[in-house]
Amino acid sequence: MIGRLTGRLDWKGSDQVLLDVRGVGYVVFCSDRTLAALPPVKSPVALWTELLVREDLMQLFGFLTVQEREWHRLLTSVQGIGAKGSLAILGALGPDGVSRAIALGDAASIKVAKGVGPKTAQRVVMELKGKAPAMMLMEAEDPPMDALAVSEDAPVAEAPPVSPPPKASNAQAEALSALANLGYAPADAARAVAEAASEADDTPGLIRGALKRLAPSDR
């Protein structure tokens, strides 16, 4: 199993890159978003990877974060979503956007991805809604690799430096944790936090907004 590659970006195509790891060239397929975030050709780069093995095919898929890779694994577990469909969804929304869309039951956002129809988008939301809370918590624990900071001469086995996690993602994870401690169901908490994110990006604000949405209706 190839879980991560660190090397030099030798070539960048429309949906794949060629990564030179100590003289061995690996073709790695990436989403549009990941491709856009990569440094220029000939720069050092690091990617988390997922290896697809079939009887007549072996393909590597690359991701900037573990969260993105885990969403890829979950998305491809849904009937009708193959590797290309997963990359299309991640390219359109990013892993954080996928977390929010699924937490909110927003199939319309999933449908924006190229090649994903309304029935498949609805299936994604229905089958993965229970996974959204854990994936949202992962956002704060999963800072992206800083590809530009990877030394070309560094041993491949060494982990590259990482950037601090985004403030909003950390705040959402903290809000989810607080709501879980209050006894709210993970799916309900994730939906409420995702809705509250349109009004606040700090932990106290997200908790207040989520609690308003979780409060029993008087009607």
Brief summary:
By secondary structure, the protein is of the alpha+beta class. Helix content is 47%, strand content 18%.
Descriptive report:
- The chain has 219 residues and is α+β, with helices and mostly antiparallel strands.
- The protein folds into three domains: 4-64, Beta Barrel (OB fold (Dihydrolipoamide Acetyltransferase, E2P)); 66-130, 5' to 3' exonuclease, C-terminal subdomain (DNA polymerase, domain 1, Orthogonal Bundle); 167-212, Helicase, Ruva Protein, domain 3.
- It is built from nine helices and five strands.
- A five-stranded mixed barrel has the order 1-2-3-5-4.
- Helix 3 packs across helix 6 and helix 6 (132-141) crosses helix 8 (186-196).
- Residues 156-168 are annotated as: Flexible linker.
- Residues 170-214 form the Holliday junction DNA helicase RuvA C-terminal domain.
- Keywords: ATP-binding, Cytoplasm, DNA damage, DNA recombination, DNA repair, DNA-binding, Helicase, Hydrolase, Nucleotide-binding.
Task: Give short descriptive properties of this protein.
alpha+beta, 5-stranded mixed beta barrel, 9 helices, DNA polymerase, domain 1, OB fold (Dihydrolipoamide Acetyltransferase, E2P), 5 strands, Helicase, Ruva Protein, domain 3, 219 residues, elongated
CATH topology name of the largest domain: DNA polymerase, domain 1
* Structural class category: alpha+beta
Radius of gyration: 19 Å
> What is the CATH homologous superfamily assignment of the largest domain?
5' to 3' exonuclease, C-terminal subdomain
Main beta sheet, described?
5 strands, mixed, barrel
The strand line-up of the biggest sheet is 1-2-3-5-4
- Helix and strand run: EEEHEEHHHHHHHH
Fraction of helical residues: 40-55%
Mean pLDDT: 82
Note poorly predicted spans.
146-167
CATH level 1 class label of the largest domain: Mainly Alpha
Total number of beta strands: 5
The count of helical stretches stands at 9
Summed up, the domain count is 3
* CATH architecture title of the largest domain: Orthogonal Bundle
Keywords: ATP-binding, Cytoplasm, DNA damage, DNA recombination, DNA repair, DNA-binding, Helicase, Hydrolase, Nucleotide-binding
Protein name: Holliday junction branch migration complex subunit RuvA
Region (Domain III): 169-219
Region (Disordered): 195-219
